[in-house]
Design a protein that fits this description.
Layout lengths: L5 E9 L7 E6 L4 E8 L2 E8 L7 E11 L1 E2 L6 E6 L4 E8 L6 E11 L11 E2 L9 E5 L14 E5 L5 E3 L4 E7 L5 E2 L9 E6 L5 E12 L6 E2 L4 E5 L3 E2 L5 E8 L5 E3 L3 E2 L14 E2 L18 E6 L5 E4 L3 E3 L3 E7 L7 E8 L7 E6 L6 E7 L8 E9 L2 E11 L1
Parallel strand pairs: 10-23, 15-20, 27-33
Antiparallel strand pairs: 1-9, 2-3, 3-4, 4-8, 5-7, 5-9, 6-8, 11-12, 11-24, 12-21, 13-19, 14-16, 14-18, 16-17, 17-19, 17-21, 21-22, 25-26, 25-28, 28-31, 29-30, 29-32, 32-33
């Protein structure tokens, strides 16, 4: 996640009378410009967006320190700046033209409109391509990072390099793609690559933890829903590769406030995503799945010596190697799993595994080792039943 908050200070000093009218403009690159028009009576202050695009919107909290000036507004002063045209803030009038005067301005800015009202009729697209099945590894009110102002955020567990697509039409407000490191360390909180897209209603979509150089859109570009915008990664404050997605707007304290959203999924046109469930784009003419697991998500995987999964879909093993019977459920539940393992042409009694899946997990598996014994050379057969229903039979060869 990227937390935008800029603190910019502009200082101006004035002594005695203003002898002539003049205009100065001081800008922070990419964000806001303060315009001061000075005359013998004082200073007129206006503010505009640095970016001249008509769709740009920033929320600004402005402060002023004044000596020998007066004004009719109270500070801090809140203003939403939309488009390129300057907004008049106030005129600071000199109280005593015979005395020295001093003023300074400071502001904080966050993209978006704190007065925006999210269009709840919008169904967002899943932020990846139609070929991807992605599990929500952390959902709303997640215990790791999705709490407080970030409670309505979603983490999709997808590999590094997975194409990321816009979930909703909008305007590219900001991007970052220079970072390469990721890890569960506080010093990496501000080092995630990201894309921020402003929507028509003034809210913002944040796509975070992208790979280095994984942004393919530019600031100022309008993107359509479903358009390729970048590639997922593992940068910033993260426990592993995933895509963080949220819709948010700023509040009056210039903090991010995330907004609950619904998505078009294989189940519904308006689906609220749940933690540990797997989602993909709906397909025309294809009914919602009536099963909790797909055949392709029952696999035999190769393990290394530390019993870490290194490759799935294997059909050849060596004596002494480890393997995993892997089951990735679309949605978690109390599933009874039965696995029978036998060797063709051998008179061994089949090995039987029988257990009940944990309700809060969508992944289940059992690790096994192939003994370094020639009698285990042959074609192995693995039959998988779930809740008494035969789901899949897998085969693999074991060689000496």
């Amino acid at each position: 996640m990227k937390r935008f908050l800029l603190l910019i200070l502009f200082f101006s000093f004035s002594f005695g009378l203003y002898s002539e009218s003049n205009v100065t403009e001081e800008c922070n690159q990419e964000w806001i410009c303060l315009i001061q028009k000075k005359d013998e009576d004082g200073i007129e202050l206006s503010i505009r967006n640095y970016n001249s695009n008509a769709k740009i919107t920033n929320s600004v909290l402005l402060n002023a320190t004044l000596v020998n000036f007066k004004t009719d507004i109270m500070f801090p002063y809140f203003v939403v700046v939309k488009g390129p045209s300057p907004i008049f803030i106030t005129k600071f009038l000199l109280e005593d033209k015979t005395k020295n005067a001093f003023h300074s301005f400071s502001f904080r800015v966050r993209p978006g409109d704190w007065d925006s009202i999210h269009d709840d009729s919008v169904s967002y697209l899943l932020p990846f391509g139609p070929e991807v099945h992605a599990k929500v590894v952390q959902g709303y009110n997640g215990s790791v990072t999705h709490f407080g102002n970030f409670a309505h955020s979603i983490d999709f567990g997808i590999p590094v390099g997975t194409p990321v697509h816009a979930a909703r039409k909008g305007y590219v407000m900001a991007t970052e793609s220079r970072y390469s490191e990721g890890g569960f360390r506080k010093d990496l909180l501000s080092k995630a690559n990201f894309i921020i897209i402003q929507h028509e209603d003034g809210t913002l979509g944040n796509y975070a933890h992208l790979m280095k150089n994984g942004v393919v859109v530019k600031i100022g570009e309008t993107v359509e829903a479903g358009q390729l915008i970048g590639y997922s990664g593992n940068t910033g404050y993260t426990q592993g590769p995933h895509l963080h997605f949220e819709v948010h707007k700023p509040n009056r304290q210039l903090e991010v406030t995330t907004i609950p959203t619904v998505f078009k999924t294989q189940y519904s046109e308006r689906d609220t995503l749940s933690e540990f469930y797997t989602y993909w784009h709906p397909r025309p003419g294809v009914d919602p799945p009536k099963t909790d697991i797909l055949p392709e998500d029952i696999q035999i995987c190769k393990l290394n010596a530390k019993r870490e999964k290194i490759q799935c879909g294997e059909n050849t093993f060596q004596l002494g190697e480890n393997f995993l019977v892997s089951l990735e459920f679309i949605r978690p539940g109390n599933q009874r799993i039965e696995v029978d393992i036998s060797i063709d042409g051998k008179g061994f009694e089949p090995m039987k595994l029988d257990w009940v899946a944990q309700k809060n997990l969508a992944f289940e598996g059992r690790y096994l080792s192939i003994a370094n014994n020639p009698k285990f050379v042959g074609r192995w057969k693995v039959r998988v039943r779930i809740n008494g229903e035969e789901k899949k039979t897998l085969f693999f060869d074991v060689k000496a």
